[in-house]
């Protein structure tokens, strides 16, 4: 089979897989402290690979195929904290390609098992800041392709339509009391979701603001703040890795576009995980830590709306299910080992859901408002 024919056949397989899949649910939630605000969770955990990253992986594979970067039998390599690797392993197996995930050594055993279940192989790296170089080295050694989600996430996604997450949200909101959300809240892992949401609401001329909630150990918030001040921001970096798997990065990734974001908050890990537990209790099922980070952003936006006497809707993303974190976020011993408070943060989130003020968080709002 020629390379062009193999590419065409591979794209058909991915499109057929998409046609077999239903859209993800939009789940409403009521909070007693905010009677004039409707809350919704876009449940991305219902994808075949269990997370928001399923959309990204599909887009990255189509982008790489259309660019001629993938070849029959050649490995696909990705730097990932877990969920993207699970989803990319799924698509690699669909195309009959070997897949190697370059992941932090601290990645939960549940995610490692999920990658291996999808046919992938895991290459562990001690420091999060070394993932990219290790991935490039593996690509050179194996003759494979480094997918590089952090560079290509924002450009691989068709942000105008094609059932991206933004279009899906607005279609599902069409019959709701407030069909155009006041806020959509997400958290940056690559920055690609924020770019897609921000571009779409501008393209469709919706009066919706995009709020990014960044975890405690991450450089996106710092990059956003520096960009708004007109200072250099692309090269900001640290050596620490986020404790909230799937989001947060030790550098400002190429897919993060500050101009597509209207406001940012920086969320302490203790509050993210308390919010995770609160959402899990209210929905009756476990969610992951990044959903908790998002929910703190939701509460921040809700308080601003309440203070302004504004009714409306807030939509956020349920990124993945909590079963992947049984050995971390749902294990009391993990909190003791990590030195993360539980009791006080749980009380704080519960009080905020009841309408009491959220403790001050570092935040910045775009100067153009």
Describe the structure.
With 369 residues, the protein is of the alpha/beta class. The protein folds into 2 domains: 18-47 and 156-360, Rossmann fold (3-Layer(aba) Sandwich); 54-153, Rossmann fold (3-Layer(aba) Sandwich), CATH 3.40.50. Helix content is 42%, strand content 15%. The chain has 13 helices and 11 strands. The strands form 2 sheets. It has a 7-stranded mixed β-sheet, with helices on both faces. The chain has a 4-stranded parallel β-sheet with strand order 5-4-3-6, sandwiched between helices. The chain is globular, with a radius of gyration of 20 Å. The model has no long low-confidence stretch (mean pLDDT 94).
């Amino acid at each position: 089979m020629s390379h062009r024919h193999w590419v065409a056949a591979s794209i058909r397989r991915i499109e057929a897989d998409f046609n077999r899949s239903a859209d993800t649910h939009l789940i409403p939630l009521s909070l007693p402290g905010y009677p004039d605000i409707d809350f919704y969770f876009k449940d991305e955990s219902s994808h075949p690979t269990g997370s928001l990253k399923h959309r990204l992986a599909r887009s990255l594979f189509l982008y790489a195929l259309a660019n001629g970067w993938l070849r029959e039998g050649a490995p696909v390599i990705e730097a990932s904290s877990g969920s993207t690797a699970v989803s990319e392993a799924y698509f690699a197996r669909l195309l009959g390609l070997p897949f190697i995930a370059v992941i932090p050594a601290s990645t939960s055993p549940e995610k490692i098992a999920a990658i291996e279940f999808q046919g992938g192989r895991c290459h562990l790296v001690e420091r999060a800041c070394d993932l990219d170089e290790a991935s490039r080295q593996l690509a050179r050694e194996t003759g494979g392709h480094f997918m590089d989600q952090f560079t290509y996430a924002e450009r691989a996604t068709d942000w105008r339509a094609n059932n991206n997450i933004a279009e899906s949200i607005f279609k599902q909101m069409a019959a709701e009391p407030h069909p155009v959300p006041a806020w959509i809240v997400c958290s940056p892992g690559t920055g690609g979701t924020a770019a897609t949401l921000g571009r779409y609401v501008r393209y469709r001329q919706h009066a919706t603001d995009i709020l990014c909630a960044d975890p405690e150990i991450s450089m996106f918030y710092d990059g956003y703040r520096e960009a708004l001040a007109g200072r250099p921001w692309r090269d900001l970096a640290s050596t620490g890795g986020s404790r909230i798997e799937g989001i947060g990065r030790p550098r400002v990734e190429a897919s993060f576009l500050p101009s597509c974001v209207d406001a940012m908050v920086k969320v302490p890990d203790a509050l993210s995980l308390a919010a995770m537990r609160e959402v899990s209790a209210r929905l009756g099922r476990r969610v992951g830590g990044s959903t908790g980070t998002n929910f703190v952003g939701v509460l921040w936006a809700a308080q601003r709306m309440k203070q302004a006497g504004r009714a409306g809707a807030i939509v956020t993303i349920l990124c993945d299910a909590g079963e992947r974190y049984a050995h971390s976020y749902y294990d009391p011993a993990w909190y003791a080992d990590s030195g993360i408070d539980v009791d006080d943060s749980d009380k704080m989130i519960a009080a905020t859901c009841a309408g009491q003020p959220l403790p001050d968080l570092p935040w910045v709002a775009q100067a153009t408002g």
